Amino acid sequence: MPHASATQTSQRVYRCTFCAKAQTEVKTLVAGPGVFICDECVQLCRHVVEKKRKPTTRELPSLLPDNAPTETLLKTLAGYDGVFERVDAAMQDVVDILRERDVSWAAIGEALAVSRQAAWKRFGSPS
Ligand SMILES: [Zn+2]
Question: How far is the CA of 82 from the centre of ligand 1 (A)?
Answer without folding.
Answer: 15
